[in-house]
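RECORD TYPE: inverse folding
INPUT: C-alpha cells
STRUCTURE:
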C-alpha cells in the first residue's frame, strides 16, 4: 500500500487536538514552565491514536534541548514508554538547532526550531505526555499541538510506541585506538557485549528507527563499527549483522556531507579536520522494520571491534506489547552535557607531544620511525 492509498476513504473517528492556545482568546498561545517543574502537555482519557506533535520553544537555557525531558505514558502505565531529552527525540543533537527532514520526524524553520513528529501512537485507556524542565532557568513560552484521533476501539495487535535516549562516552577495548589497523594488526570482535547500546527490549514488537549522534574527538573515521541486532535471545552473530556504521545508515565510503532522504541521512556533519566533531545520522526502518517476538538487543560498535573513544548519544524508536522493560533513570543534568570541543590548539599540543617522543628536530608529522 502506498503512502497516499486510503486517503480518500472515510474514517469512523473524531479528530481532536490539545494545544497551548490562549484560553482567554488572546494571543499568548503558550504555556510557561518554571525551573524544576513538570508540565502535563496532554492527559487523554479515551481511546485513540496520536497522529502528529508540533512544538516550538522559547527558552533562556542555551542547552534547553538537552535539559527539557519528554516522557509519554500509555494506558495508565506508571513507567514511561518514551523518555528522552526533547531535542534528541526530535532530531536535534547536542542541545543545538539545525534543519532536519525525514518522513516521521522533522526540525523545520526557523533554523530547526519547529519540532514535528508523525509517528502514530495508539492507546486504549488514555495517554499522558509530560515535559520536565530540568534546568535552573524558566521556559518563558512553550508552544505545542498534539493532534489525535478518538476511536471506539483500536486493533488488538496495535503495539505501543516507545523511544529511549542513551548516551555513553566510550573507551577503547584495547590499549590503543587502533582503527584501520594503523597501530598494527586490528583486533577481532566476536561479541556484542562491548558495543554501544541502542536499546534492550523485552516483549513482542518491531524496531523502526534511530537518531544517532556521534562526537569524535579525533580526525579518524568513526564509523567502522558494525550494527548488530540479536533477536529473541539468539547468540552472536545474530540474525542481522551489519558491515559498518555508514552501511547501516544507507550511505557509503565514510561520508562527510549533508544528505536528506525520507528514511535516512546525515542532518549534521563536522567542518573540522577529517571526521573530528559532531555528526548526526538517522535511519528509519519504515519499509524494513526489525520484528521480534520475545526480545531485541540492538547495538553498534564504536569503531571496528570497539576501539574508539567517542561521545555517542541516540534515540531508538520501536513499537511493542506492554508491559515493557522499565528504562533506567535518565542521567542527571551534568551527565547529559556536551564534551568540550577539540580545537586547533589541542591538535597542536598533540603534535608537540609527538615531536618530543621522536626527539624533536626536523619532523613533518608523517614519520613512522
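DESIGNED SEQUENCE:
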Amino acid at each position: 500500500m502506498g503512502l497516499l492509498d486510503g486517503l480518500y476513504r472515510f474514517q469512523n473517528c473524531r479528530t481532536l487536538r490539545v494545544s497551548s492556545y490562549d484560553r482567554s482568546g488572546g494571543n499568548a498561545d503558550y504555556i510557561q514552565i518554571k525551573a524544576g517543574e513538570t508540565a502535563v502537555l496532554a492527559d487523554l482519557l479515551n481511546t485513540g491514536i496520536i497522529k502528529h506533535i508540533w512544538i516550538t520553544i522559547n527558552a533562556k537555557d542555551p542547552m534547553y534541548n538537552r535539559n527539557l525531558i519528554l516522557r509519554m505514558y500509555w494506558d495508565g502505565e506508571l513507567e514511561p514508554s518514551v523518555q528522552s531529552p526533547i531535542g534528541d527525540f526530535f532530531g536535534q543533537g547536542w542541545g543545538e538547532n539545525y534543519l532536519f527532514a525525514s518522513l516521521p520526524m522533522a526540525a523545520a524553520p526557523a533554523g530547526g526550531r519547529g519540532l514535528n513528529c508523525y509517528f502514530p501512537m495508539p492507546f486504549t485507556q488514555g495517554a499522558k505526555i509530560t515535559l520536565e524542565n530540568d534546568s535552573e532557568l524558566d521556559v518563558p513560552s512553550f508552544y505545542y499541538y498534539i493532534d489525535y484521533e478518538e476511536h471506539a476501539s483500536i486493533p488488538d495487535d496495535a503495539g505501543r510506541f516507545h523511544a529511549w535516549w542513551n548516551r555513553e562516552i566510550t573507551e577503547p577495548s584495547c590499549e590503543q585506538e587502533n582503527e584501520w589497523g594503523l597501530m598494527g594488526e586490528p583486533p577481532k570482535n566476536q561479541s556484542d557485549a562491548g558495543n554501544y547500546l541502542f536499546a534492550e527490549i523485552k516483549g513482542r514488537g518491531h524496531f523502526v528507527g534511530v537518531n544517532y549522534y556521534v562526537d569524535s574527538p579525533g580526525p579518524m573515521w568513526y564509523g567502522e563499527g558494525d550494527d548488530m541486532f540479536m533477536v529473541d535471545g539468539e547468540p552472536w552473530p545474530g540474525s542481522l549483522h551489519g558491515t559498518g556504521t555508514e552501511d547501516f545508515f544507507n550511505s557509503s565510503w565514510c561520508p562527510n556531507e549533508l544528505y536528506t532522504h525520507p528514511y535516512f541521512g546525515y542532518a549534521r556533519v563536522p567542518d573540522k579536520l577529517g571526521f573530528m566533531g559532531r555528526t548526526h545520522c538517522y535511519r528509519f526502518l519504515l519499509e524494513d522494520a526489525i520484528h521480534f517476538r520475545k526480545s531485541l538487543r540492538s547495538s553498534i560498535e564504536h569503531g571496528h571491534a570497539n576501539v574508539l573513544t567517542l561521545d555517542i548519544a541516540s534515540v531508538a524508536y520501536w513499537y511493542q506489547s506492554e508491559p515493557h522493560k522499565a528504562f533506567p533513570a535518565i542521567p542527571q543534568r551534568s551527565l547529559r552535557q556536551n564534551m568540550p570541543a577539540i580545537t586547533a590548539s589541542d591538535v597542536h599540543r598533540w603534535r608537540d607531544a609527538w615531536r618530543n617522543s621522536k626527539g624533536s628536530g626536523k619532523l613533518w608529522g608523517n614519520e613512522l620511525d
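NOTES: The chain has two domains: 11-156, 160-179+188-320+339-369.
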